[in-house]
Structure formats: C-alpha cells, structure tokens
Amino acid sequence: MTVQSSQALVSHVDEALVKRARAGSSNAFEQLVRRHQAPLRAFLCRMVTEPSLADDLAQETFLKAWKALPRWRGTEGDGSSFRGWLFSIAINTARDQRRSLTRAQKRDTAWHAEQDQNTSTEAGMAARLDLDRILQALSPDQRLVVSLCFGAGLTHAEAAQALSMPLGTVKSHAQRGRDRALDLMRDLRPSAPTATLLVSESPKP
After folding, report:
1. According to CATH, what is the number of the domain 122-199?
2. What CA–CA distance (Å, rounded) separates 64 from 132?
3. Model pLDDT for residues 96-110, shown as the tens digit of each residue
4. Whole-model pTM?
C-alpha cells in the first residue's frame, strides 16, 4: 500500500467515525481519540516543556474537537482531513496556553518587583523624593515630556500625539529636560537610583 492510499484510508475511516460521532455516538468519538491520541500528544510534547502539560492540552484539544464537530466541513478535495483539523485545534490551544503562561509570568515578575521595592523603603522613599524634586524643578512642558519619554517609555512621536504638541518641540523639551535633570541629580544624589531612570535614552521617534 502506498503512502497516499494509506492516508486516504485513514481519512476515509475518520470521516465515517466523524459521521457517527455527529449523530451522537460517543463510542465513535472514543475511537477517533484512540486513533490520534498518541501522535497528537507527541506533537504537543514538542511544543511544551512538560509531558503532563501536553496531556492536559491533548485532553482540551479533544474536548474542543468534540464540541466543534458539527462545524467541521469535512474533506473538500484539497488535502484537508479530520487529522489536519484536529492538529490545528491543538496548535491554537497550545498557543493560547503559552500566552496565558506569559501573562502569568509577567504578573509574578511585577509582584516580586513590588515586594523587592517594599523591602527597601528607605532607599525607595529617598529616590522618590529626589525624583519629585527634580520633576518639579522642570518647566511644566519639560516635566510632561520627561515623564512620558523617560518615565513611561513613549517615543517622541507618541508623546507628541499624547500632548498634541509638535514633534520638534517634544524633542527639544526632552533634551533640555534631560540635561536639566542630570544637573539636578549631580547636586542631589549622584548615585541615586533615579539617575538610571531619568537619563536612559527614550525610544526613538
């Protein structure tokens, strides 16, 4: 049997099982699970780091497939198959999990950073006071531009948009405000943590 005929047979059997599963046969869907569980799990193991997570994702994939069976259009003579459709669900499920994990990691990182900040209250309060004094010493426009570009990380163009201010004016305020802040830092606390915050280059426009 050639590879093409073997794949055609697999697709034919899958379609017959899908038809029965759509009619309400849980046994037919269980057969689909048994037919594709091992290769699907092996694929997911390559997408994630933990085998137990691959098992969870495989179960979620089959659950989604079961719920979405009525919407599957079947093979259309273009090489599509139930297996291809099933793996597309697995890929999207793994990507969703990865995005959720990334968001959770960012929340954990932010929480730990906040805890670290709280453990050094004296240094943090001193730095905060210095930062406030420096910003108050700037002109109102310079204070806004410095806060946006060097504090919030906006580009010059984004700051210009936010402030409804010409781009050239924003660049001028950013440069002059930065220079003024540097002078004030040297007078206040040359080694203060705020120095790193304020003198770092803002994103380019």
Report:
1. 1.10.10.10
2. 53
3. 887 766 555 555 555
4. 0.48
